[in-house]
């Protein structure tokens, strides 16, 4: 079953525990946590203390996306704080195989992320190592951006590689996912779809999450 991952980047941080509880009660199983350093991307967000606080109030899988220039240094801190899975950008990891294995060695699932302009071919050597691949469908740094359509071609290439190589990595997408495009996203081969403004930007986040999840489930039957 595909998963919708609400992104807390769009949540009300003054009531973060309540915001998480809303989607958890609605059936959500995974939560996306964007970490930005103001260097790799032009924004600053949060650090391990917020993840530690989230871990205290929820049993949801915490999917931590490191948009930072030094993931080797900070990934263990986020895992210690409670991250269940951590993704790092191909663009900042000169020793990507080592970084992914380090994350796994620390006890978390390891994901690799590619920006819209980064080819899928840069990942071919580590697809057998990564637990999941995250395709950015916007340029990272800010929430609320519009979906970049050509990123679905990258999802299709990843799905074909997964099938042809007999691998089991999950395919995740992040950026601009809405009620209007979630069907296309899932049919292209996405397993996990991150949704920020489309969940927490709505007056009823629980209902918005459920609507997206229902659309994703319906699209699964007609993947192309």
Give the amount of beta strand, in percent.
Answer: 15-25%
Helix coverage percent: 25-40%
Tally of alpha and pi helices: 8
For CATH, the homologous superfamily is named as: Aldolase class I
Q: How many E-type strands?
A: 8
Which stretches are poorly predicted, pLDDT < 50 over at least 5 residues? none
Spatial strand arrangement across the major sheet? 1-8-7-6-5-4-3-2
Q: What is the rounded Rg? A: 16 Å
> Remind me, CATH topology?
TIM Barrel
Alpha-beta classification:
alpha/beta
How would you spell out the order of helices and strands? EHEHEHEHEEHEHEHH
Distance between the termini: 16 Å
Mean pLDDT score:
95
What characterizes the major β-sheet? Answer: 8 strands, parallel
> Quick one: overall form?
globular
CATH top level?
Alpha Beta
Give the domain tally.
Answer: 1
User: What CATH architecture label applies?
Assistant: Alpha-Beta Barrel
Assembly type of the shown chains?
A: single chain
Ordered list of secondary-structure elements with their pairings:
Layout (H helix, E strand, L loop, with lengths): L2 E4 L9 H10 L4 E7 L11 H10 L3 E7 L3 H11 L3 E5 L6 H10 L3 E6 L17 E5 L14 H15 L4 E5 L7 H7 L3 E4 L1 H4 L4 H16 L4
Parallel strand pairs: 1-8, 2-3, 3-4, 4-5, 5-6, 6-7, 7-8
Helix pairs in contact: 1-8, 2-3, 6-8
Structure explained in plain terms:
The protein has 224 residues and is α/β, with parallel strands linked by helices. The protein has one domain: TIM Barrel, CATH 3.20.20. It is 37% helix and 19% strand. The chain is built from eight helices and eight strands; from the N terminus they run βαβαβαβαββαβαβαα. Strands 1-8-7-6-5-4-3-2 form an eight-stranded parallel sheet. Strand 3, helix 3 and strand 4 form a beta-alpha-beta unit. Helix 1 crosses helix 8, helix 2 runs parallel beside helix 3 and helix 6 packs across helix 8. The longest helix has 16 residues. It is globular. The two termini are 16 Å apart. The mean pLDDT is 95.
């Amino acid at each position: 079953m595909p998963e919708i991952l609400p992104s807390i980047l769009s949540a009300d941080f003054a009531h973060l525990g309540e915001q998480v509880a809303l989607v958890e009660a609605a059936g959500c199983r995974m939560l996306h946590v964007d970490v930005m350093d103001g260097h790799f991307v032009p924004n600053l967000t949060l650090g391990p203390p917020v993840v530690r606080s989230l871990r205290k109030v929820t049993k949801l899988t915490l999917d931590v996306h490191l948009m930072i220039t030094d993931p080797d240094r900070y990934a263990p801190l986020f895992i210690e704080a409670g991250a269940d899975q951590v993704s790092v950008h191909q663009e900042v990891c000169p020793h990507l195989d080592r970084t992914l294995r380090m994350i796994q060695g620390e006890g978390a699932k390891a994901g690799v992320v590619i920006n819209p302009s980064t080819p899928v071919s840069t990942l071919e050597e580590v697809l057998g190592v990564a637990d999941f691949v995250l395709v950015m469908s916007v340029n990272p740094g800010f929430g609320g951006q519009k979906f970049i359509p050509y990123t679905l071609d990258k999802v299709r290439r990843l799905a074909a590689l997964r099938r042809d190589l007999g691998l089991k990595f999950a395919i995740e997408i992040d950026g601009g996912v809405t009620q209007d495009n979630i069907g296309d996203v899932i049919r292209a081969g996405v397993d996990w779809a991150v949704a920020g403004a489309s969940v927490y930007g709505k007056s009823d986040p629980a209902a918005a999450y459920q609507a997206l999840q229902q659309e994703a489930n319906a699209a699964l039957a007609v993947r192309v």
